[in-house]
Amino acid sequence: MKDNLALAALPRLDAHLPRWREVPLYRHALSGNGGAPFDFHEEFFRLPFITKREMREGFPRNFLRADQRLESLLEDQVVELEHTSGTSEEQTPVLFRRGWWNEQEERALRLNAEVAGVLDKFPAARRATLTTPTCNGSACHTAWMSRTERTIGHTLYVNLARIPFLLKPDAHARMAEEIAEWAPQFLDTDPVHAAWFALYCEKHGLRFPSLKFILASYEYVSVAHKRILERVFRVPVLNLYGSTETGHLLMEDTRGELRPSDETAFLEIVHPDETGVGDLVVTTLSNDFMPLVRYRIGDLVQRRGSAYIVYGRARDALKRADGRRVTTHDVDQCFTEAAGVAHYQLRQEDNGTAKLDVIADGAGPSAEDLHAVTARLENLLQPAAPLKAQVVDSLLPSPSGKFRLTQRA
User: Fold this and answer.
1) Angstrom distance (rounded) from CA 79 to CA 287
2) CA 206, 161, 327: angle at the middle one, nearest 5?
3) According to the model, what pLDDT value does residue 142 have?
4) What is the distance between the alpha carbons of residues 39 and 87, in angstroms, rounded to a whole number?
5) What phi-psi label fits residue 153: left (phi over 0), alpha (psi between -120 and 50 degrees) or beta?
6) What local confidence, expressed as pLDDT, does residue 161 receive?
7) How many Å apart are CA 376 and CA 334, to the nearest integer?
8) 364-388 as b/e, with b when 16 or more CB fall inside 10 Å?
9) Within its chain, how far is the Cα of 339 from the centroid?
10) Dihedrals φ, ψ of 362, to 5°?
């Protein structure tokens, strides 16, 4: 659907057309209709969406020019080859120019004026990263790696476990000691791992005076996670949204709104519902080695003015009895005033029943708080039977290592 924002972006997108025509994946779609020249203004929004399946098929020949060879590009250190985490389907290879990742990340971070000030004051700002470890040369949960091996440039990769709830106190103590010695200006975190670590720090009276802010990324940031991180570390906790294949697309500003990184990508919302929540479609603008044209990323978003709200993954949306969609964001808003919750998962079965598993923050939610949450969720979901809720010691991640706040059987 074309709106004023989309139409205004067309001249900027048109400038990329010569490069896109060189990409085998798009060559046919951009060749014009019956030999006629491709009318960008009229036809861009009729181009087919691509998904990870199209990205994987024929890789890397589906993206590289005829005169390019991946082996040579890697050997000459022109490009970097990474893989997606596999959150929604199998891992997908991603190719980008060497140095591009750091460039687009800093561009997104500077959308927040306070973060930009920190980066100006500390040009070599140190970060400590707490997220799902992967075997990618930075850290690996299947084998011990020393601190030296986990220190790459200005980044220290801290955790070595996939399931934070199973960590022993000595593992948390090691993480805290490393962060204190590293003295980072910010934490780069998966919110589930970070919130659980924060509770350990709170219990032992640990804080890190060097911290200026915390980035929460990698998966949906719950109000429960953010509440704990702000309470324990007493610095701004900022949502940074993106993906391995697209780069960072949205950054939380000083007003708490998610702002787009326009130089990195053009964003569309397709098939919106009556509230304006629809599927996010991304056209990347700065990664010439693997440009994505109308890539359906799999997330639901809403645009309000020039800002965005992320509603979670489309596949994790639940359904009311009347068929209406209930997003992860909708569910998470029910936990805004829910004390005693560190993490949760709401699972909906095919028959319309639902079960809520909660991991406790401290002593956990009181009976009254847990009842209030379930009442709000029942009002939202209209389940076929009363919602069952229980406090549990641990929740398992998906095969990618990420945790799902909402899940439909």
Assistant:
1) 10
2) 90
3) 53
4) 36
5) left
6) 86
7) 6
8) bbeeebbebbbebbeebbebeeebe
9) 25
10) 65, -125
Q: Rounded to whole angstroms, how far apart are CA atoms 393 and 391? A: 7
Sign for the pseudo-dihedral over CA of 201, 207, 210, 211: positive
Strand partners, 278: 301
Cα angle: 230, vertex 236, 99; to 5 degrees? 125
10-residue block means of pLDDT along the chain (409 residues)? 68 88 92 67 89 95 94 96 73 93 97 98 96 59 78 91 93 97 98 97 97 96 98 98 96 98 96 96 96 97 96 96 95 95 97 96 95 96 93 92 93
Whether residue 297 contacts residue 270, with contact meaning beta carbons closer than 8 Å, is answered with: no
Contact residues for 289 (Cβ-Cβ < 8 A; gap 6+): 63, 64, 73, 79, 95, 96, 97
Q: What's the whole-model pTM score? A: 0.94
DSSP state, residue 153:
T
Tokens standing for 284?
């990347």
How far is the C-alpha of 387 from the C-alpha of 392, rounded, in Å? Answer: 16
Kind plus residue range of the DSSP H or E element containing 187:
strand 186-189
Q: Is the dihedral of CA 402, 240, 409, 370 positive or negative?
A: positive
Strands 318-319 and 325-326: antiparallel
Q: Is the peptide bond prior to 48 cis by the omega test (within 30 degrees of 0)?
A: no
| Of the candidates 163, 218, 164, 172, the residue with the CA atom closest to the CA atom of residue 191 | 218
Q: Quote the tokens at residue 396.
A: 């398992």
Question: What is the DSSP pairing of strand 155-157 with strand 151-152?
Answer: antiparallel
Closest residue by Cα to residue 214 from 130, 157, 123, 156 = 130
Rounded CA separation 291/288 (Å): 5
- The neighbour count for residue 113, using CB atoms within 10 Å, is 10
Question: Residue 305 burial (CB < 10 Å; 0-12/13-18/19+)?
Answer: exposed
Q: How far apart are CA 388 and CA 170, in angstroms?
A: 35
Q: Which amino acid is at 379?
A: N
How many whole angstroms separate alpha carbon 387 and alpha carbon 377?
8
Q: How far apart are CA 70 and CA 250, in angstroms?
A: 30
